[in-house]
Design brief:
Elements (H helix, E strand, L loop, with lengths): L5 H42 L5 E3 L11 E3 L8 E4 L2 E3 L7 E6 L3 E4 L2 E3 L10 E6 L2 E4 L2 E3 L2 E5 L5 E3 L2 E3 L3 E5 L5 E3 L2 E3 L4 E4 L5 E3 L2 E3 L5 E4 L5 E3 L2 E3 L6 E4 L6 E3 L2 E3 L10 E3 L7 E3 L15 H33 L6 H4 L6
Parallel strand pairs: 1-5, 3-6, 4-7, 5-8, 6-9, 7-10, 8-11, 9-12, 10-13, 11-14, 12-15, 13-16, 14-17, 15-18, 16-19, 17-20, 18-21, 19-22, 20-23, 21-24, 22-25, 23-26, 24-27
Antiparallel strand pairs: 2-3
């Protein structure tokens, strides 16, 4: 059996060192993430409340109802944030009625409020100037009823959750993620904007009934059970622009969208009805560090091997065969 020479040992040592570095990197990275997650959870628990919130007017934005700061103006809105509200059974996590001050509900975790229309994660009745930002919503829904000039932005919906507007105008629904949910639904709601949302594997993407003059733009809707976008019952003059809509309900092409005969004046422009091809995944710094480690390790191996080969070459080139007279001692003959 051939013995390993010094070069083989060196190569094995470098490979083992790189492998060790990768393992340590992953372990420390995961440990750091766990620490951060635990710290975030602890902070949320310290700030959180266990009971639902019920605000019935402008004067109810108080610390008792989870308000941490603000005075209700545009420059300094009331803030409700970092709360965990998990109700046991069909209840509203947060319900707000009859307000017209500026406020934000942000970075909260709301779950298990039930699926009935009167049992929701967040429910607005006759509310204006509210913002629902960056919340995690599970097995729960957001309802806006007779509510105007509100924003639903950057929330993460999972497990049969959804967004519903009724008799609500001039609202913006943008940059939300809905996975395994119901859909975004507008009923008798006009002049709203639905922008840049990510809707995957839901019952449907976006559905309008008796809702006109809305803009649906820049959304990605795919793998839903039914149509990507549906306009029913005199939903007129809506604009559906530059959306990715594909693989919904086994439909193809423009059939990803259903527009009934009395939903006239619809504008379709720049929509794409196929998978994104050639798109790069989101940038991940961890992958970059791994790639740099592999490149640096590989370059180090190449450099070391090149030096050893070059040194051996110089040694061989500098070797001189002895003369015959030096190899044979004739003095003994």
């Amino acid at each position: 059996m051939k013995k390993l020479n010094s070069i083989n040992y060196l190569i094995l040592f470098i490979l083992f060192s790189n492998l060790t570095i990768f393992i340590l990197f992953f372990e420390f990275n995961n440990y750091g993430r766990l620490i951060q997650v635990e710290a975030n959870n602890l902070q949320v628990k310290l700030n959180g409340i266990s009971s639902p919130i019920n605000i019935t007017g402008n004067n109810d934005f108080t610390p008792f109802n989870g308000v941490s700061s603000g005075n209700g103006t545009y420059e300094n809105p009331f803030i409700i944030e970092d709360l965990i509200i998990e109700v046991d059974g069909p209840q509203n996590c947060i319900i707000i009625n009859n307000t017209d001050v500026f406020f934000k509900i942000q970075n909260c975790t709301l779950k298990n409020s039930g699926l009935a229309t009167d049992k929701t994660a967040i429910r607005f009745n006759n509310v204006s100037y509210g913002s629902i930002l960056n919340n995690t919503i599970n097995l729960a829904r957001i309802f806006l009823i007779d509510s105007h000039n509100n924003s639903i932005y950057g929330n993460n919906f999972t497990d049969d959750s959804g967004i519903f507007l009724s008799l609500s105008n001039n609202n913006t629904i943008s940059y939300n993620s809905l996975t395994g949910c119901t859909y975004i639904h507008l009923l008798y709601s006009d002049n709203n904007k639905i922008l840049n949302n990510y809707i995957q594997n839901c019952t449907m993407g976006i559905r309008f009934l008796h809702s006109s003059d809305n803009i649906i733009m820049g959304n990605e809707i795919y793998d839903c059970q039914d149509y990507g976008i549906v306009l029913w019952s005199e939903s007129k003059n809506n604009q559906i622009i530059e959306n990715y809509i594909y693989n919904n309900g086994n439909k193809t092409g423009v059939n990803q969208i259903y527009i009934d005969f009395d939903s006239t004046g619809t504008i379709l422009s720049g929509n794409i009805y196929e998978y994104r091809d050639g798109d790069l995944p989101p940038f991940d710094p961890t992958l970059l560090l791994i790639l740099l480690s592999i490149i640096i390790g590989s370059v180090a191996i190449i450099i070391v091997i090149s030096i050893l080969i070059y040194r051996r070459y110089r040694k061989v080139k500098g070797f001189k065969h002895p003369k015959t007279s030096e190899l044979t001692d004739t003095s003994e003959f």
